[in-house]
Amino acid sequence: MDAQTWRMGFRCLLLLAFVGSTRSEGGQTCEEVRKLFQWRFVGAVKGLPDSPRAGPDLQVCISKKPTCCTRKMEERYQIAARQDLQQVLQASTSTLKLLISQNAAAFQETLETLIRQAENYTSILFCNTYRNMALEAAAAVQEFFTDVGLYLFGVDVNPEEFVNRFFDSLFPLVYNHLINPSVTDSSLEYSECIRMARRDVSPFGNIPKRVMGQMGRSLLPSRTFLQALNLGIEVINTTDHLHFSKECSRALLRMQYCPHCQGLTLSKPCMGYCLNVARGCLAHMVELNPHWHAYIQSLEELSNAMHGTYDVEHVLLNFHLLVNDAVIQAYLNGQKLAERVNKICGHPVRTPTQSPPCSFDPSKEKHGMKISTRNGEETLANRRKEFINSLRLYRSFYGSLADQLCVNELAAVDGLPCWNGEDLVKSYTQRVVGNGIKAQSGNPEVKVKGTDPVINQIIDKLKHIIQLLQGRSPKPNKWELIQLGSGGGMVEQVSGDCDDEDGCGGSGSGEVKRTLKITNWMPDGMNFTDVKQIHHTSSSSTLDTTGAGCAAGSQPMTFILMGVLMLLPGLW
Predict the structure, then answer these.
(1) Which of 206, 235, 521, 522 has the most CB atoms less than 10 A away?
(2) Confidence class of residue 108 from pLDDT cuts 50, 70 and 90?
(3) For residue 383, what is the enclosing H or E element?
């Protein structure tokens, strides 16, 4: 039975009790108490008093007046009082728990979609531009994005290692199909030698290191963000099922069910009395509050810092551009690379062969057919912002939880007669203590002793995740980078408020161009027609593969490449 159903049923029975009698005294009947007890515990009423009588064996609900309770009823009521508080707690935390759990699931789903989309973009790049090597590159592309997903979702894989594996696997393909394309089949031993030589000859320049930097800066914060959300759910689940002390259980019984023993089935505790009991029972939970506040603040700081090259969406959806840059850079330096590879691996004994066609079917992934700017409302950054704005409302949640329970659920409205632990009174006259363990030394209703090891364990986990969140919050500086490729073909310069040499497409508003001059080249397997200028504007970008397909024999296409301005002198 959930909390809402229980409360509705209980209120109905209270209404019946009110119609019948407000209080059973002296020789009056205990019928309403019996009805409520039978409904609450779904059992027979055999052995329950028919009328008030002395209760010398009662341990908590002690009264000089006749009582409708027995010792066994008191024991059952004590269990019920603990369950009632847990249900009220769970109802109070349900909105917060739903907020975090739904967003954690949504973020994970969005990241999975981004990974699939980025993998499709990279596959389309090979299919439409480097189709002779596309089939061979498919396994490396799939393995790379599988590792990206594993890392994001908490598996212990090393980003540096899987980035290196990808470029190690890419180099033999680029070498065989673009740098030395006259023959396209070499022995496995020779391809392995080329693969092993990649880190020595550096065919892709600094691009692998840039990819490592981007992946490290963007994947790790997103991974930590997801871990933090899962910990938030764990904190709530733990506090929802805390074990209450014996002193707390007795105080809850006295506050919630002892009035029934006197026939006061409609009474509610006085506000001050309720606050003392609730603050005493939840004193250890209140100790979570400063750490919970810091946890939400750290989540917000990390979320605000995840932009540009720290934004996983920007990095993943632009990964294929760096792959293209890497291939072009290797091609431009092909002669020097061939000489170095020949020194390391020797000359291959090879036979000409026909490369298999690309097997990627874009119709299976409709979102892989076109790259375009995502709707502003759909971006991961905006989702995080909306989530943090909602979560910020709960920064002091655990510090005010006891008060909320009394105000919203448990206590009587001011001005009405209320239960003070002994009888109905106009107001509660005992001292009302504050929140937290230290304030409970003067609590007249609940004795609070020591610390709660479960709460201490949660606090330790929160401290740890806060350190991780704060350690993942980047502090980008202005920078400027000029790099000349070894072949004199690439000139790149970006400056301003960007995060690194990796570009500004995800965070800036102006146009960012990278210039690449190419002379007299058109390698087999690359299809460029009527290409005079390819540019990237941060506000819009399109990779149009409509109608291009990936099968052998498809028509050449114009490849709109984000981030690169390509000038082919032969077409001017």
Answers:
(1) 235
(2) very high
(3) helix 380-391
pLDDT range class, residue 488, cuts 50, 70, 90? very low
| Number of Cβ within a 10 Å radius of residue 446 | 24
∠ at Cα 282 (418, 411), nearest 5°?
15
Q: Tell me which residue has tokens 């119709």.
A: 363
- DSSP character for 497? S
**Predicted model pTM:** 0.74
Looking only at the bridges linking them, the beta strands covering 370-371 and 424-425 are unpaired
**Integer Cα distance of 74 and 507 in angstroms:** 64
Residue 360: which of 170, 551, 528 has the closest Cα?
551
Task: Quote the tokens at residue 390.
Answer: 């909602």
Q: Which residues pair with 567 in a beta bridge?
A: 517
Question: Looking at the predicted structure, is the pLDDT value of residue 366 above 50?
Answer: no
Instruction: Dump pLDDT digits (tens) for 238-265.
Output: 999 989 999 999 999 999 999 999 989 8
Cβ atoms 121, 371 nearer than 8 A: yes
- DSSP code per residue over 112-139: HHHHHHHHHHHHHHHHHHSGGGHHHHHH
CB 266 within 8 A of CB 416: no
Q: Where are the alpha helices (DSSP H) in 241-288?
A: 246-256, 258-261, 271-281, 283-286
Q: How far apart, in whole angstroms, are the C-alpha atoms of residue 409 and residue 293?
A: 24
Kindly state the tokens that stand for 531. Answer: 């290409």
Helix axes 71-129, 380-391, angle to 10 degrees: 160
Rounded-to-integer distance, Cα 59 and Cα 56, Å: 8
